[in-house]
Each structure stands twice: as C-alpha cells, then as structure tokens.
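Here is one chain, start to finish.
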Amino acid sequence: MGSFWKLVGFANTYSTGFFAYLAVACLSVATEWGTFALAVTMLSPIEAALAGFITATGVNFVLSRAYVFQSRAPWHSELALVTLASALVFVGNLLVFYVLYDSLGVDLMLAKMAGTGVGFVLNYAARQFLIFSPKPRYAPMSSRLAGPIFKAAKDERSSAIRGRADSRGDA
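Its structure:
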C-alpha cells in the first residue's frame, strides 16, 4: 500500500504542471500541423514535415520555459536538450506507431494516437526531470483544490455561527 501512496503523492506534486504541459503540447501540435499544411504547398512533404517539427519544437520550448517548467541552465543549453529529446521521442513515437500498426494490425488512427500519447508522456518526463528543474513550477494539485474547499467550509462555518448568534439575539 506504500507504493500506492507514493504514486498519489507523485501525481499530486506534478499534476498541475502536467496539465499545463498538456496545453503547451496542444498548441505545439496545432503549430506543427499548421506549419506543415502551409509548407507542403511550397516544399516536399519531408521538408514540410521537418519545417513543422522545427517550428513546433521552438514554440514548445518557449512556452515550456515561460509557463510550465523552471529553468536551471542557460536557454541555449535547454533548447539544445529540448530539440534532442524531441527528436528521440519522435523516433519512439514512430516506433510505437509502426509496431502497433504494421506488426500487430492495430487500426491506423489508433496506432497513431497511441504513438502520440507515448510521445507526449515521454516529452513531459524528459522536460520535467532531465532538461528543466525537476522542482515543479506550480503548487501541488491538492493545495490548489484545498484552498477553495477550505475557504467555502470556513465561510459556511462563520455563517452558521452568525446564524446561531442572531437567533439568540447576541448580534
């Protein structure tokens, strides 16, 4: 049972940043696809895919550094590591896709989504634990949720106390 609570603590600590990275990843994907769609009208599909990858990696780096993770190194070092990690994760994404689709016969889009999902998790982990500071930028999820819950409970308690005082005529 101790492992379960360690996992819960880990999720609590990193979930806020994980969701912030999810937003960055969605913007990065939109950037990649948009760049590809524009570039493929002027370049070969391979060149357009490379242009999309490079543009999206740059957007991901800027947003990750500014809004998701804490920096611990000069920006150019982190950019080099993000680019390397993204390229390696792309290979992993492609491998998952290929194995699922070609070797196991999984539906084309399901295989692509699985590869993308694996790539997303690997990219987040590389950025959070290897490239940027492993210390989360944001407070744990429990403190973000507990604040409003405790405030509501405190307000309710204060209201109940005032109500009792009013009914006794103490106010």
